[in-house]
Amino acid sequence: MVKRTTTLSAVFILFGIMTTKAQVNIGFEVSFKEPQAHYAEVKMNISGLVKDYVDVKMPVWTPGSYLIREFEKSVEAFGATSSGKALKVEKVRKNIWRIFSEKAKDIRINYRVYAFEISVRTPFIDESHAFLSPTGIFMYPDGFIKSPSTVTIVPYKTWTKVSTGLSPVEGKAFTYTAPNFDLLFDSPIEVGKQDIFEFSAAGVRHEVAMYGGGNYDKEKLKVDMAKIVEQETAVYGENPNEHYVFIVHNSASGGGGLEHLNSTTLGASRMGYASEKGYKSFLGLVAHEYHHLWNVKRLRPIALGPFDYDRENYTTDLWIAEGFTSYYENKYMLRAGFTTNDEFLNALIGGVATVKNTIGSKYQSAAAASYDAWIIGYRPNENSKNNSISYYGKGEVIGILMDLEIIHATKGKKSLDDVMKAMYLKCKKLNRGYTDAEFKAMVEKISGESFTGFWAKYVNGVDEVDYNKYFGYAGVTISSENIAPGKPYTGIAATLGNSAITVSGVDRDSPAWLSGLNVNDEISKINGLSLQEVFEKVKLSSPRIDLDTIPIVANKAIGDKMSIAISRDGIEKTFELKLQENPKARLKAGIDPKATAAQKAVFAKWTEK
Question: Using one digit for the tens of pLDDT, what is the confidence trace for 294-324?
Fold first, then answer.
């Protein structure tokens, strides 16, 4: 009888909690009283949450951008009322406001958000438009992250349009609903007078919202973006969206993108669409971010969802989430007909060379780079190039190697495509992300080979890659030559000021490193000559200097010595450098004229349209 009573009590308590949560209604209204001053006015209404106090929280980061951004720092004038009566509010943590609601049934919260950081991952507001990156705008009641909410946008008087992946509420202008806060936080909102056009591909309606003007051709973009969508959907066998939104911010020199479940935000150069290079660059960005609707949003590392918005969410698998996406960006551009086989190869070899020439690739693995994204990847310092590697670049290289190994092992019957599709379906079935071990197991299942050694060398290790082995599977040869044969090398990156050259970087084990030169040293003389004498006949297009290209250095021979006088914290010092040959390499790809039928079959599978 005791156990039965306890069990029934637990059921009633659980039922009470479920009933309470079911009765809670959360709604937002966002308006813009002073857009020229970069402010959003936010009203948050909570009803049915009858407690002594309610904690509301703002995320400190945004998924897809692995840095604690402290969005709460931009909140001001936070206050709460119930039935017109002011409620006591206390800030109990950096991103948590406690409202002493005294069991009030309805709570109205008001606050302002300052938004003046231009990026694809942060809110920005001015007189021309508002970009609402949701994690920097909306709060949620603690414990109610899974609760639905509605959002009403009140555009500024000269604005007429709203673009978002959120579902509209029928019969209510500019009002949208989210089934939970994870989806709300994953749905950016563009408000203004953006140029909107649509196209259909893979059975999905796609909306493109262009802000900032530009020399883009809408009809051409409709056709070419659709090609990318169709190619990507073909890999996974299905497109999980009914509606997808591209929010494109065109600026003088824009770039970058951030993925979301059924939308993306892209930065682009407004006048870059007319050139072949600029146009292909934009399509490549589209291909990259669109691929994320599968890879990372649904086919995701287990640590990346459900999210903890209060702190870092660590994973060792960003090399898959981002690096493989960088690789597939090139594959989709090839498959959609925007690049040739030669261009595809050159793009891949360029990526391989970048990793090979990054000093930090010898010290940090792809898995470690993923885990350290929060402290190094998004927060590099002057020494990061010497001790770290990009999980984008190293992940792309791993993707190339893995794809070629699978195609070779299966004699052209399978490829990395099969792994990605199988893992997507597995994540969908299990309704969770994958572990590193599960991804490795799937690679081994598809390929029929053990990848334990591969993982140890290239994922968790920093072994030098035998590129000729892997590219050789496809009959592709890789040749290497010194990037500056016979030319001297100091290992110094610097910036030119009015009276001194300031050292901004020192390569590990370079002449500058070995001599003791430091970042922030101010160079006043080189080989006894003043800067005026050194640069008398030198024309610079940028204040950033590659010291090795200056005649006084470039005309030296490898093994020569040179002196550099500097000022460090007001103390004059002179260092002697013994010049070395530049250790960086230039890689070139070629097709083996004696390629076997098996190699040609691998190449055909690898580059199939």
Answer: 999 999 999 999 999 999 999 999 999 999 9
- pLDDT for 22: 52
- Model confidence pLDDT, tens digit, residues 483-500: 999 999 999 999 988 778
Residue carrying structure tokens 């690096």 = 323
Helix, strand, or coil (residue 390): coil
Distance CA 438, CA 59 (A): 30
Amino acid identity of residue 324, one-letter, is: F
Alpha-carbon distance of 536 to 6, in angstroms, equals 89
pLDDT digits (tens, 9 = 90+) for 316-337: 999 999 999 999 999 999 999 9
Phi/psi at 208 (nearest 5 deg)? -115, 120
Task: Provide the CA 220 distance to its chain's centre, in angstroms.
Answer: 27
Cα gap 183→297, rounded to integer Å:
11
Residue 403, SS3 per DSSP: helix
Which residue's entry shows tokens 């857009």? 35
Contact 261, 290 (CB under 8 A): no
Instruction: Give the torsion sign (CA, 556, 562, 565, 566).
Output: positive
Task: Give the sign of the dihedral formed by CA 156, CA 159, CA 161, CA 162.
Answer: negative
**What pTM did the predictor assign?**
0.94
Which long-range contacts does 448-454 make (Cβ < 8 Å, 24+ apart)? 448/409, 448/410, 449/405, 449/409, 451/402, 451/405, 454/401, 454/402, 454/405
Contact 379, 344 (CB under 8 A): no
